[in-house]
Amino acid sequence: MPKLLVANRGEIAIRIFRTARKKGWKCVAVYSEADRHSLHLAHADEAYCIGPAPAKDSYLNIPSILEAAKKSGAGFIHPGYGFLSEKSEFVSAVESAGLVFIGPGVEAMQKLGSKIAAKQIAEQLGIPLVPGYHRPIRDDGEGIAMARHIGVPLMIKAAAGGGGKGMRVVKDLSQIVEAISRARAESKASFADDSIFLEKYIENPRHVEVQIMADLSGRCIAFPERECSLQRRHQKLMEESPCVFISSTTREALRRDAVRLAQACGYTNTGTVEFIVDAEENYYFLEMNTRLQVEHTVTEMLTGLDLVDLQLDIALGRSLPFTQEEIRSVGHAMQWRIYAEDPAQGFMPSTGQITKYLAPTLPQIRIDSGYGQGSEVEVYYDPMIAKLIASDQDRFSCMERLKEALQQFIIEGIETSIPFGIRVLEHPAVLAGDLSTGFLDQHLNEILYPPDLEDKYLAAAAAAYHYYRTQSGQLKLPNHE
Fold it and tell me: What's the mean pLDDT in 259-274?
């Protein structure tokens, strides 16, 4: 009976454990001292503490994770997403210990895990790239020279990692030196790598991605594309599939190039090839995430497939059980990420104990969460509380179903992005599918403070003032003479 250690925490650990246990696998959890009471521990057969609360001392601690695998006798390690999931040195350490890493091999991850290396491979394959300098910037002098050559607006990007870390938009060349310095520092802190490169900044593009799955024989298939254009600070908030604005020709081209890129690198297991697409449907390769993604649930809702189940089978050496033509998708699926943060206060993280947690129970709704009533939201980790996924026959019905679920989702004790999500889903442009990666920046105030909400505030203020005047006339004011 295989034994699987998940080198992660929270909802993604729970989600992987659920599939593994259905397959009859034994499950091993790891946890930091801050996660001693985390819900993911209850879904495993065994659990091992791997260090103090800070991620660098626990979930990024490779020796400690491998020691837990050794103590438990786990033969397989799934990284989830984030933390060590895209670190080739972790893959190498796992394989050197005689264990199986649930993901791509070291060489493929090294080629595609670096945005610079991946773009160079894509360029050789003739896959379109955003104009730019796809080499590491060595110093400020080279950065200034390349920025002048590319022209503004331009984007500074970290070569490693994701999630918007180490990214800066520069619209004035006088800002380039400071922006390079900040991007380097953030990339170094987040990924222990300060390599950066420069690209032309495409105004208001759509973000479209293609998830692939490849077995050990080299056969690779692409799943229906997902759109992830609704973002804040380059971090996705809502994902959906299919993408409603692209033609079948563009759709097939994206899938074809995603598969070509993966096969050219000898890629195995799952990963996601990301593109940006402009209003004329010109598309450009962005990067490849060499792991399972947060939004894999959207694809699962749309196709009825279990992607983690496929991952585990591939790790056992099994072939993909279907062809590209046999993948079926029905209707529309959409996911909203619920974060512990306060949108009205600049999306400031909200920590503390969840005093009330009531999740909706509705048809065609899926909830992946690592928290419940009484859970503590710590400052050390990503603030995502849950993923809420809906499916229906068409996009509008799917959005209505998702909104209804958000309206019934109650989380108290901390601030969350639930009310914000409801307002986003009510915005006319979102309803029409008129999105871009800059949408939230451009419409944030009207979403946070819609006109009808302003009228309610004015009415409440008028009522309060009237009450004050009425009451003050009946009270005897103190004599200060």
Answer: 98
State whether residue 113 is helix, strand or coil.
helix
Q: Look up residue 315 and give its amino acid.
A: A
Pick from 226, 239, 313, 337: nearest CA to 272: 226
What is the set of domains in the chain, with CATH numbers? 3-102 (3.40.50.20), 131-200 (3.30.1490.20), 206-448 (3.30.470.20)
pLDDT tens digits, residue range 430-454?
999 999 999 998 999 999 987 765 5
SS3 assignment, position 173? helix
Distance CA 224, CA 46 (A): 36
**Cβ(42)–Cβ(14) under 8 Å?**
no
- Residues of the chain with pLDDT > 90: what percent? 79
Is 18 a known active-site residue?
A: no
Which residues, including other chains, have CB under 8 Å from residue 172's CB and lie 6 or more apart?
A: 152
The residue assigned the tokens 């009531």 is 358
pLDDT tens for 194-216 read 888 899 888 889 999 999 999 99
Sequence letter at residue 384:
M
Residue 476 pLDDT greater than 50, yes or no: no
What mean pLDDT comes out for the span 81-94?
Answer: 96
CB 245 within 8 A of CB 302: no
CB 261 within 8 A of CB 273: yes
Which residues are CB-neighbours of 221 under 8 A, at least 6 positions away? 212, 213, 214, 259, 320, 322, 323, 324, 327
Spatial contact of 374 and 356, defined as CB atoms under 8 Å apart: no
Ramachandran category for residue 94: left, alpha or beta (phi over 0 → left; psi -120 to 50 → alpha): alpha
Confidence of residue 193 (pLDDT cuts 50, 70, 90): confident
Spot the catalytic one: 291, 395, 401, 423.
291
C-beta of residue 150 within 8 angstroms of C-beta of residue 131: yes
Among 243, 225, 215, residue whose Cα is nearest residue 322: 215
